[in-house]
Amino acid sequence: MARKLKRSRKRSSQKKRQRRVSIVFSTIGVGFVLLVGFLSFEVYLKKDLQMKKFHKSYKDIEVPSSIVCMWEDKIRINPTIPIKLDSTTYYACCEKCMRRVETNFHNTQIAVDPYTGAKVQKSDAYIRLESITNGEVQFFESKENYNNYLTQRSK
Question: Quick count: other Cβ atoms within 10 Å of Cβ 148?
């Protein structure tokens, strides 16, 4: 009978130990999942939220050319790099885009006005935000063309 008592005590102490181990591992697992969630928010989602907020700030106003990458035709939060070509200043978001603007100068300096279809110098254009989600812009010859484009589009 003493042996049975020792065995049952041994089993109950083993069960307690197993419960403690499973609680520790469960706590570590939950902590790991929370850590991964926090890091993914900090790395990916936080930047997207900042970009959307920045894009919304230019929703109903003219976009200054100094914050537009003229290679990708998108608004950038980070400061852009000014490029002087033929006494005109263009902007790029990074070194890669800067080299592309310089080497493909004649292809990137001109945009097509969505209202008239005329070719417009990007550096002299009236720039408006096309899409809040990805920050794409459109280049217009003038503010009147933009207003006419809006009225035509709303019909």
Answer: 14
